[in-house]
Amino acid sequence: MAPALQSLELRVPPPAVVLIVATAMWGISVLAPQVALPAEERIAAAILIAAVAAGFGLTGNLAFRRVKTTVNPLHPERASTLVQSGVYRITRNPMYLALLLFLLAWAVFLSNAWTLPGPLAFLLYITRFQIVPEERALSARFGAAYTAYCTRVRRWL
C-alpha cells in the first residue's frame, strides 16, 4: 500500500470526516439546483433518519461505556472487551452507521441530488481508513472470537 494512503489510517477522527463531508454537501447544495420536495415531508424524513441515526449511535456508545472499553476510534488496540450484544448483534459499526445516516438525513434536508455522493464518500473513506484498520487491530487483540463475530455480524447492516 502507498505510504501516503497508509498514513491516513486511524488519523482523522470520524466526526471530523463527517464535518468535512457535510460542509462539502452544503457547498454543493448552494451551487446546484434543489429538488422540488415539499418542505414538511423533506424535514420530516430528515428528522426520522436522524432519529434512527441517534438510536444507533447512542446504543453503540452506551454498550462500550457499559463494559468500560474505549470509544476512541483512533486507538482500537486499547479495546478491553469485544462487545457483541445489543446493537452489536445487528452491525459491527453502529456508531459509524449513525454518522452515515446523519449524512443521509443532511442530504435529504438539503434537498439536492448532488449531495447524495457525500454519504457514499463517507462510507468509502471510513471503511478504508477507519474500519479496516480497526478490524486488523481487533483481530490481533481478540483472535478467533473476533473472527467468529465477523462471520455472524455484517460490517454495516
Description:
The protein has 157 residues and is mainly alpha-helical. It has one domain (39-152). The protein contains six helices and no strands. It has helices at 3-6, 14-31, 39-66, 94-110, 117-142, 144-152. Helix 2 runs parallel beside helix 4 (94-110) and helix 4 (94-110) runs antiparallel to helix 5.
Topology:
Elements: H1 3-6, H2 14-31, H3 39-66, H4 94-110, H5 117-142, H6 144-152
Helix pairs in contact: 2-4, 2-5, 3-4, 4-5, 5-6
> How is the biggest beta sheet arranged?
none
Cα-atom Rg, whole angstroms? Answer: 17 Å
Regarding quaternary structure, how should these chains be classified?
A: single chain
What percent of residues are in strands?
under 5%
* Separation, N- and C-terminal Cα atoms: 28 Å
Contiguous uncertain segments of 5+ residues = none
Can you tell me the number of structural domains? 1
Structural class by secondary-structure content: mainly alpha
Q: Helicity level, as a percent range? A: 55-70%
Overall body shape: globular
- pLDDT averaged residue by residue: 95
User: Got a strand count?
Assistant: 0
